[in-house]
Specification:
This protein has six helices and no strands. With about 120 residues, it is mainly alpha-helical. Helix 2 packs parallel to helix 5 and helix 3 crosses helix 4. It is extended and about 55 Å long.
């Protein structure tokens, strides 16, 4: 059998983006929130029924989160579960103004991809 060379590629830090998912940022945020929920359940050794009794969230929802079945959950629902388990959620935004300015400047210089100049 011949030895194949594998090409190693550094990821972006978001596996969903690396695989081209159009909702990569939302899926990444859901995964981070689910991981926090699972970490709390493990740290406090809570069963899904105990977590239900403590938070009022259905035990089946905790099972879905443990199994990474997050399609039924919105980001705000997962954030609420994190908070009901006693953790705080802090959201930070980063603006990409530099990229927007560069794009705007190139548009004024003569357009992007042959498009007419915007004024």
């Amino acid at each position: 059998m011949r030895e194949r060379r594998l090409k190693v590629v550094r990821g972006s830090g978001n596996v969903f983006r690396d695989f081209g998912d159009p909702n990569a940022e939302v899926l990444q945020l859901k995964a981070i929130l689910a991981a926090q929920i699972i970490k709390t359940l493990d740290r406090e050794q809570l069963t899904v029924r105990e977590a239900h009794a403590r938070t009022g969230v259905a035990a089946a929802d905790f099972s879905r989160i443990r199994n990474a079945d997050l399609a039924r959950f919105t980001v705000d629902r997962l954030m609420t579960i994190v908070m009901r388990l006693g953790s705080e959620v802090e959201v930070t935004f980063k603006s990409k103004r530099r990229a927007m300015r560069a794009r705007s400047a190139s548009t004024k210089r003569g357009g992007i991809d042959g498009l007419p100049r915007l004024t």
